[in-house]
Structure formats: C-alpha cells, structure tokens
Specification:
mainly alpha, 4-stranded antiparallel beta sheet, 5% strand, globular
Length: 720
C-alpha cells in the first residue's frame, strides 16, 4: 500500500502488486550481500570487478523497478527526482541527436575564415564563419527549438508533480490532509505570550463554532536542539546494543573534537551514550522550566475547508479587520493581539511535520535579512576557497586577448584563442591547469561548498523544513554553476582581461566572453571533457559501491543504518551539467553526447542507490517545493543560455538574429517572474490555497467535507 504524496495526514492510498519489482529492489538487487562480519573489503572489490565485467544485469535489474516500487521503497522524493532525471535524459537524448546530425556537419563543412586552423577543434564549433549572418540562422532556429522544448518539458513535469502535490492524489475524491483545514497566524504579541482564549475570541467574532482546535506555538529553540541531539544518541545507543547482542563484545567509539578524523580517546560506546542521554535529560528539563516566551504564532484547525478559507480572507489584513470588528487589537500593550500590522499574516498552514519549530520566532522580514547576510557570508568564504584556483590559471596564461580586442572586431581573428593554451610553467604548470584545477573545483563542489551551505541555511530563519531544503538547493546550484562555468571560462584570458571584465565591462560582453572562450579547445578538452569524465566516474563508482561498502563497514547490518540521499546536492549537480549543455548547445555540439552520457549514467546509478541503500527516515515533508525550485532554476538557466547566445551573436555581427535570442530570454524570464504564469506553468504550491492559478484548483469538491476528529491538536508543538 502506497500513501500518495507522503505525510500530512494523508488518507488517499493505492495498492500495487510490487512483488517482482521489490524483489529486484530489495534482497536480490543487493546481490546476496553477506550479513556477517566475514564480509571484507576484498569481497566488495571482487563484486565490483564482477559488475564491471557484466554491467547488463545491473542495468536490466535497475530498469525493471517501476515508479510505484521506487515510491514504496524510497518515498515521493525519489519518485519525483527520478522522473526529473528521466525527463532530462529524454530531452537531451533528442537534443544530442539533433545537434550531432544537423549542427555539427554544418559547422564542419561550412566556409570558415582563413585564420581558423584546419583540423582544429574549432572547426566543429560555430565560430569563424565567413558569412555569419546567413550561416548562423540554422543555429538560431535550433537554439530557439531547444528553449521551447525545455519549457514544454517543464510544464509536463509540473503536471506530473501536481498529481502528488499537497499530500493528496489529484484523482482521488477523499478527505484532504490536516493542513487543508489548518490556518497559521503570525505577528501576534510575544511578551506576554498570547493565550488560546484571545485567539478564540478573534476567530469566533466571525466564525463562531467552526474551530476544532487552537495551538499556541512558544519559543522552543533550545529544547529543539537538545531533543534532536538526544534522539540521535538514542538511535546510536540502540544500534550499539544490537551490535553487542550479536557479537558479544562491548563496542567502543572515539570521542573528542577530532573524532571525525579518527583521532581521539576510545571509550565504551554504550556507557558514553547513556551518560550523554542522562545529561541531555537534565538540560531539557532545565530548558522547559524557563520562562515561556511566545513566537507570535498560532495554528488553528477548522472543521471544514470553507471555514479555513474564510478565516484567511477575513483576518489577513489586520487594519481592515480592526476597522470592521475591532479585532485584532493593534498595539504594543500587554493586551494587544497584533504587535505590528506589517508583520501580521494569516495564511494556510504547512504540513505539521514541515514546521521548523526553532524558527517560528522570526518574521518574514527577519528571515529575509538573515538569508541575505548568510548568502553574503557564504559568498565571502567560498571566494577565498575558489579564488586561488582562479588566479593560478590567470597568472600561468601567457595569451593576452583583451575585451577591447574582442569587441572591436565582429569576427575574432586570434587563432590562438581556439587552440590549447601554451603555459609558461612547463609540464608542471600544464598539469596544474589541465588536470589539478578541474579536479580541485570538483572536490570543492562535491564536499566543501555543499557542507558549508547545509550548515549555514539552518540559521537563515526558514519557518518550514522544506524551505530549508529548497534554499539549500538554490545556493548549492548557484555556487556550483559559478564554479563550473563562469570562473573557468573567464580565467582563460590574461590578468588584464580579468580586471576589465570585473570592472566596467557590460553584462552582455561577459556572457559573450563565456560562450566565446567556452568554444575554445582549451575549455572543452582541458576542462569540460576531463571534468565530465571525472564526475561521471565518481558518481558511477560511488553509487555502485556505496551500498556494498556501507554494508561491509557496518558488519552486515547496513540496511538498519541511516543513509540519506541529499536531494538538494544531487539536483544542483544535475542542473549544473544541464546548464553547461544549454549554454553551448549549438556553439559546441560535441558537448551534448558527453552530457547525454552523464545523464544516462546518473539515472541508473542514482536509481540503484535509491532502491538499495537510501533511508526514508528523514523525508522532505513537502518535496513539491524543492521540485518547483528546480523547475524555476531550469527555466532561468535556459534564459541565461539564450541571453549568452544572443550576446555571442552580437559579437559575430548578427545583431538581427541576436534580437530573437534576447527575446526568447526575456520571454522565459517573464514566465517565472509573473506570479500567475509561474503558478500556472512552472511551479506547484505546497499549501492548500483556494485559487484557480493551478489547473483544477485545490480540490473544490472537498470544501464542505468535515475534518476527521483525529486532526484535532495535530499542529501541537512536539517539543513542549
């Protein structure tokens, strides 16, 4: 039985016969892993070698697991992620075939300028045509076709997401989940905290007898951290006790500030964890005995969706409601309900498990300021991490192609631009630039940057857990795209060019420079190809061996340990590869087969890990929010690619053709900027709002359905 959408008081269920597929996804897919301590690392290596010799069974076994089985085994997040990856695989499979059959021959057989060296990689690119105004018309049509296809695919993925949104299947006419009946009120008095009687007086002034329950949220920041830490210790203690029962030997563990690098004091694991749990019990009791401080937030559950919708309409504007009924009282006094009309907000509540209780004390303005400050701090820290790699390439380069030289001539005639760079440091410098730099940037993107972002977003003040995950995706994708695309492309020139580009050069010239240098052999051969191969190999080896290594390291009980698939990171890494493909889809057609290979490998390796080693103990309560952010990011990078292509066309002297590319970029930005268009064609809301922006609305047939009694007190704070 699969709960469609997962969480949030779901009542819609469907039953599937997943016996054959689950067998492939379960024990048989694990290859009969040994469950005892005799399973060694050499066994894992030998199994990997056997798999490398016969990959067909792996592909067939993984492909046989359908979407319903993935949903059952790894949750709705996994289903949506794999659907997105499969959609991109189909899109770029068609695109790779198109540009290989149409654009690549046109580039190679077209009449190129005499300065372009014959037989060079540049012959396969769209640079150097004798008559670019006519030769690049085909490239423009292909670019516009790809942009249109991206928008169509986004709409189709959004329709698929809509059928699982908000914890209820689109086709099922059943009782909606609890969040469809619950309203969240923000901006109330903090000290002294508001009482349930005051909130009920406000609601009964308009909707008497319609309230099922009212919960006041107090500030539990300290308690949340302590309770979560204690829960982790309890889970670890249970695991060590089971290990002791199975092996008969007291397990040990390393403690200390450097225990994460296996440096510290080794102690008895069970005694150490029991002491930690007792200590946290005392701390939790002390925190709960402190003076109660309010957050200005209340969750009100109504008997019908109609009453919840009316509450949002009546009380969303504090000033208007006060003029009509005298409530809520506005002021800073000890009896005033609304502390500030500017922060007062009444809206449909998120899922109860999606509430981030530690951040309810922050208003929307405070959350915005925390996010801005946090982003600037991350930008500063990551600049110090990435900049040394950037300047290594700049100082070692001896070619000096300035921005003025590029802009003065519609057709650049520096043949050296499209040939591998000559470096002033000999073989060592060539090694650093050609191999070490892309590998270093990949390490930064794989480990350093995602860890910093995931740690920082916890303090951005998001009021929902899905908001934290969505913010993680957006930041990881931004820094990853910058590290993978713009910094390497801009670093292929000289120091003088760097100063000019970072100084007064217009944005369109920067975009044109990225596409221009990205068309050079040094960028494709020495960076993109190597990075793609390294990244593909990393994902392939990591995903295919992680279940086996994890099982080996846990002594044969890996299925009982916590193993989380970081969707924010994997969405970002996937979208970064897609962004590079969209940026050079017609200028460098040889890039598309590499992208298709990467997507193909990612689909099967990611699916393999999700159905064998992923834990669903910490699911995203509202995965539609992160998926919607991914759709917006995909449309935006398509718009960026169109703008860069338009700037590059202007650099070639094709100003009339450039207008079409710029127009496509503006159109895509409008789609995600206008709220009605965005909600209708790109995103899906994770809250139950009474609107027709989304096709079909939010199940209007359920407006009068009475809420079950079990929904009472569903939004009560679990930490008090």
């Amino acid at each position: 039985t699969v709960e469609e959408g997962g969480g949030g008081g779901i009542t819609a269920q469907k039953t599937y016969d997943t016996t054959p597929t689950l067998a492939a996804a379960g024990e048989e897919a694990r290859g009969g892993w040994k469950r005892d301590s005799s399973y060694t690392f050499s066994d894992a290596v030998s199994e990997l070698q056997e798999f490398a010799r016969e990959p067909v069974p792996f592909l067939m076994e993984t492909a046989s697991v359908d979407d319903d089985a993935v949903h059952h085994r790894a949750g709705l997040e996994a289903r949506l992620y794999l659907h997105f990856l499969h959609s991109m695989l189909m899109l770029f499979g068609v695109t790779a075939a198109l540009v290989t059959v149409v654009i690549l021959p046109a580039n190679y057989l077209g009449h190129k300028a005499s300065w372009l060296p014959e037989g060079a990689f540049a012959q396969t690119t769209a640079n150097g045509f004798n008559h670019p105004q006519s030769a690049l018309l085909l490239h423009l049509l292909c670019s516009l076709f790809v942009a249109g296809m991206v928008l169509v695919v986004v709409y189709l993925m959004r329709e698929h997401l809509l059928s699982f949104a908000r914890g209820m299947h689109k086709s099922e006419a059943v009782v909606p989940p609890v969040q469809a009946y619950t309203v969240e009120v923000q901006g109330m008095r903090v000290l002294p905290p508001v009482t349930e009687a005051e909130v009920m007086e406000l609601i009964n002034s308009r909707l008497s007898g319609e309230v099922m329950s009212c919960e006041i949220a107090h500030d539990v920041t300290e308690t949340v951290d302590e309770v979560d830490e204690q829960l982790e210790l309890i889970q670890s203690l249970a695991r060590y006790k089971e290990q002791f029962e199975n092996e008969g030997v007291r397990p040990t563990m390393l403690v200390g500030p450097l225990a994460w690098i296996y440096c510290g004091e080794r102690v008895d694991a069970i005694e150490h964890l029991q002491k930690g749990i007792r200590k946290l019990d005392e701390m939790i009791e002390k925190s709960r005995s402190k003076r109660i401080v309010g957050t200005g937030t209340a969750f009100i559950t109504f008997k019908t969706r109609t009453a919840a919708t009316d509450c949002v309409k009546f009380f969303n504007d504090a000033r208007t409601s006060n003029k009509l009924s005298g409530l809520p009282s506005i002021g800073t006094g000890p009896k005033d309900l609304c502390r500030n009309p500017a922060v007062w907000e009444v809206k449909m509540a998120p899922k109860p498990q999606d509430v981030c209780w530690r951040n309810l004390r922050y208003s929307h303005f405070q959350q915005t300021m925390l996010s801005v400050v946090g982003f600037l701090c991350l930008l500063l820290i990551l600049t110090f991490v990435v900049t040394p790699l950037f300047f290594i390439q700049v100082f070692l380069s001896i070619e000096e192609i300035t921005e003025s030289e590029i802009s003065d001539k519609p057709v650049p005639h520096h043949a050296a631009m499209f040939q591998p760079k000559r470096l002033s440091g000999g073989w060592l410098a060539n090694f650093v630039v050609s191999l070490l730099t892309p590998a270093s940037i990949l390490v930064i993107n794989f480990f350093i940057m995602p860890a910093l972002v995931k740690w920082a977003v916890r303090y951005f003040g998001h009021r929902t857990n899905s908001g934290i995950r969505s913010s993680s995706f957006a930041l990881i994708f931004f820094f990853m795209l910058t590290n993978l695309l713009f910094i390497p492309a801009l670093s292929l020139g000289s120091l003088e060019e760097l100063v000019e580009i970072t100084g007064w050069v217009p944005v369109d010239k920067i975009l044109a420079s990225v596409v221009l240098y990205g068309s050079a052999g040094v960028f494709f051969i020495d960076y993109v190809a190597q990075s793609a191969l390294i990244a593909t190999a990393f994902f392939f080896v990591y995903h295919t061996t992680s279940p086996k290594i994890h099982n080996w390291a846990s002594g044969g009980s890996g299925d009982k340990l916590y193993w989380e698939f970081d969707y924010a990171y994997f969405y970002s890494s996937l979208l970064s590869v897609i962004a590079i493909a969209l940026m050079f889809v017609v200028t460098v057609p040889l890039l598309l087969p590499f992208v298709f290979l990467c997507l193909y490998t990612r689909y099967y390796t990611d699916k393999w890990q999700l159905i064998t080693a992923h834990s669903i103990r910490n699911p995203d309560p509202s995965p539609e929010r992160t998926a919607s952010s991914v759709f917006v990011g995909l449309v935006l990078v398509t718009a960026l690619a169109q703008a860069a292509f338009g700037a590059w066309l202007g650099l070639q002297g094709c100003n009339h053709l450039a207008l079409w590319a710029w127009g496509a970029a503006v159109g895509l930005v409008v789609v995600v900027s206008v709220p009605w268009l965005r909600r209708r064609f790109v995103t899906v809301s994770d809250t139950w709002i009474d609107t027709l922006d989304e096709a079909g609305g939010t199940h209007p047939e359920t407006m009068g359905v009475v809420a079950p009694v079990s929904y009472k007190d569903a939004s009560r704070t679990p930490y008090e």
